[in-house]
Every structure is written in C-alpha cells, then in structure tokens.
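Q: Can someone sanity-check these two? First one:
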Amino acid sequence: MGTASFLKRARALLRVRNQLARECLAELLAVFVLILITLSGSAQMVTSSGTKGNILTAYLAGALAVMVAVYTAGGVSGAHLNPAFSLAMCLLEQFPWWKFPVFVAVQTWGAFISAGAVYALYYDAIQHYSNGTLVASGPRETASIFATYPADYLSLSNGFLDQVMGTALLIVGILAILDTRNKGVPKGLEPVAVALLVFSIEVSMGSNCGCPMNPARDFGPRLFTYVAGWGAEVFRWVEGRGRGG
C-alpha cells in the first residue's frame, strides 16, 4: 500500500499539465527515436563496409523509424517530426504559426541529441572504421552516417530540385493518407502507411542526395558532426565529393 501510494504521488508530481510542454516533450522523444533508429541503420551499414547492412536495410530502418516515431507522439503532438510538415500544416491553417518556431527548435534539438547517442553507441565502430580520423570525404568518411551528402555527379541546382520534389511528395502523400475523404487507411495503421510512403520515396529517389526530406533530420545531426570533430567541411557543398545514400 505504501509503495502504491508513493508511486501515485510521484506520478502526480511528474505529470506535465501544460499542453505545449506535453507536445514539445512528445516531439522531442519521437524525433529522438526516429533519428536513433535511422542513423543506427546507416552506422551499421557504413562501419561494417556493407557486411552487416546495405542501402536497402538503411532505408528500411529509416521507414520503420518513422512508424515507431508516429506511434510514439501521434496522440499528443500529432507527430510532426519534420519542420516541412509543420510548415505545411501552418499553410493549411491546421497548425498555429506561433507554434511553428517552437516545434522546429524541438525537432532540431531532438535530432542533435539523438546523433550524439548514435555516436556514443557506435563510437568504437566509427573509430575502428575511420582509423581515428573523422572526415566528411574520402574512402573512410563517416560523416554520411549522420547527414546526407550529394552523389559525385550532382549539381547544386539538381540537388535543390531533388529535395523539393522528394519533400513535396512526402507531404502530399501524408495529407492523402490522413484525408478522411479518401479511401481510408484502417484506424491505427496510419503510421504503417506513412512508413511505406517513406520507404517508397527512399528506394525511388534516394540516389541523388540520400533522401533526407526533413530539415531537422539533416541539420541537427550535421551540426553534431561539426561540433564533434568532423569540422566545417560537413556544411560545404563540394561538387564531385561525397556519395548518394
């Protein structure tokens, strides 16, 4: 009885009653889960030189990560997970503009700290694979574990078009899945449908830039690599450098 009473009091004290705070915590946790699984799939592929994963397993990890993240926060914040989606909701007047910068900051911060968690998880593997040298280009680069880089052939204009089209397709697909006027997805399976949408975009439009489709997913981890030792090269577009994926 004493233990039950203590736990009840503890839950009451820890309960977050402010709605905005609840939404922000939900977004933070969901983005953390999203990026943790996504980057871990990439880390496993890169640090094993493809022996314990390939581009398809990395894409699958990213798609399933979206599913888990939407289930994590969907009932509290709507599981935006992505500044581009938050912006689309604002433009459609389904999300207040004043919340937009708050959600973007939370999403980016969640991606940043998740990148740190992946770095800690795969620290030994990254050090072994890179011979202790953290670089963003070359045969032993490891920056692409955390952020996406253009394929060797890609120009800046083509890269911009690639990201606009991929992100637009993602937003249109999500809106179609959620539109009650369309042929409905069975209730509770919407995150699965969104995961399949993400996977379809990745396997069809991923070769140019690696298909981030999410500014927070790319910028947060990229910022982490900058402060963690990869240097300013992670923010430079150099045509003919890098790899798709």
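And here is the second, same format, sequence then tokens:
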Amino acid sequence: QIIFYEDRNFQGRSWECMSDCADFSSHLSRCHSFRVESGCFMAYDRPNYMGNQYFMRRGDYADYMSMWGWSDYIKSCRMIPQHRGQFRIRVYERENFQGQSHELMDDCDNFQDRFRMSDCQSCNVMDGHWLMYEQPHYRGRMMYFRPGEYRNFRDMGWSGSRFMSMRRITDSCY
C-alpha cells in the first residue's frame, strides 16, 4: 500500500494505491510526497511505466523530487510482488540476445570485473525480480525487470548508456 500526496511533507489531497497505476493524472494533478505503508514499488516519471525509475520500499518520502534529483512528478507506479524461491536471469551483451551472455542467480556488483562484459543490452528473466543499475556497485539510474524477455532496453524507455551492475529484489527489501 502506498499513499501519494499533492504537496511536500504529506500535505494536500492524497490518493491511496495498492496495485499498478499506469497514469496518475486521473487521481492527482501532481505528487510531491508519498508514504509506502507496505510492500515495494517502482516509481516512474512518465506514464505507462516509462522514463526514470526509482525503487521504493516501506518508509516516508517527504520530498522525493529533491532526494532523487527529479525535475518532474511521479506519473506511474508498479507494485513489485514479493518473490519466494530461486532467482535466475540471463544477461546479454547486445540487443536481441546477441553477444556474450551469462546466467546469474545472485547479485552482481560489476559486470566488467566479473564477466569482462562491458555492456548489457538485453536479458531474459526466468525467476524473480531484479534491478539493473547504470554504474557498478548498484549506483546511478536503475531499471526494474520482472520475469520475461527483454530484447532491447531502449524500447522500454531506457536512454542510459549501459548497465553495469544488478541485484535481486529479495525479502530483505521489504
């Protein structure tokens, strides 16, 4: 469960959400703060789960725009279901599952150091939910991946140069 507020510090009109929302515009004209009461969510600065993303876990976010460095409001959000079981993903160096590939079942803080792989441009998530980051050691902009095939990250709105690290979204995130 997450509660969005129009103004900073949990002021103004509010709207409660308990699932995915592709476009906030019918609920609030803007969003400056929110409170995650349970679960984990991804926030997006464009409708339909596109644009910059940020992982949100339980807690208060009184002024997320200055905290994350965003210049625009949250426009959509996606609930991340809790996953129990194994994690498995295959990452590929180039689009359309081309180039060097590696299967992972755990976090990877640096693709270059671990695999001598300078980029990751497509993936197949077999089990679990994952976050990929544009810099090593889980820093920089991130993107959320749930089970499925991802042939080209640019088709999902990714405008970053590359992904360099990734981690599982585990029970400890909740």
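A (reply): Looked at the second one. The chain is about 5% helix and 45% strand. The CA atoms of residues 10 and 142 lie 26 Å apart.
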